[in-house]
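It would be a great kindness if you could assist me with a short task in structural biology. A protein sequence and the structure tokens that stand for its backbone fold form the material at issue. I should value your view on which stretches of the chain appear to form regular backbone elements. The record follows directly beneath this note.
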Amino acid sequence: MRRLHLPHRISPLAALGPGIALCLALTLVSIGLQRLEEDVFGHPYVEALVIAILLGMAMRTLWQPGPLWRSGIAFSAKQLLEVAVMLLGASISFAAILASGPVLLAAIVATVAVTIAASFAISRLLGLAVRMSILIACGNAICGNSAIAAVAPVIGAGSDDIASSISFTAILGVLMVLGLPLLIPLLGLSAGQYGILAGLTVYAVPQVLAATVPAGLVATQIGTVVKLVRVLMLGPVVVGLSLLAPRFGETVAGPNPAGRLRLFKLVPWFILGFLVLAACRSLGLVPDPAIAPITRVAGILTVVSMAALGLGVDLRVIGRVGSRVTAAVTLSLVLLLLVSLGLIFVLRLG
């Protein structure tokens, strides 16, 4: 009798294997390509996260995964991404946020808040759906692809929305790195001012390094600090969205016919885990040597999830919204640039 029941016990786990293995294979290729970029250029222009979703999309156009693969791909796209978001809490230190100084901290918070609100409004005016608008707004205001990946499970975004927002954001992110140094002579920016500008506008931490190295060590150091504090804003934004999502009803969070206020309905389990880890980190309960491995695992799981999302993308959907997404991301980026420059000059930062 035990032998008869054994296959039924292991079948759910076994069913996940092929899909997860496929996503892991795409992840390894993506990480390898990013390392190749680092060896050739000194830094990655296109991160493994973006490469993974593009590889998944390319494979999906040539081959549609059958039932053997679907459960593992779905698990990788949802559950593994939620675990990755939770683990990011271990890298959040409230002391690091306060250490940036009250004026600069206020400027960063104001930039993130204004940009999220304005980017969301721009996206909605262009006719984009609520989920897509939230992804573009958070990605543009905080840290590009990483913010999109973190916010997506909170608002229940679909693979097409995630792929569209990440793809176009990634392209403009690279253009931003290449074009931002041109503002130094045009606006007469000091090294400190340019460092703050790069930290407030460039999407990813490695891209901040790429954009500030031409301006010198001071710009690189200031830009990195500002960018890291800006990334820390992801925590409050994600928690806030998890609390606000039920208010959107079916538009974002889905219906709640029973009308009951359950804890996990208001705040998803992985956000609670995120907050617990952030509190432990701030209280010194998470040792410093453990931060890098935890962050690395979270990064790898995110790449695996992006590969899975790419495998579920319908390129026809992206094609239908492509021009509007491009316009929304571009206008939002221009707005972010103007807000950041305004704060730098008005508050005399740098």
The chain has one domain: 19-346. The radius of gyration is 21 Å. Residues 19-346 form one domain. The CA atoms of residues 242 and 268 lie 7 Å apart.
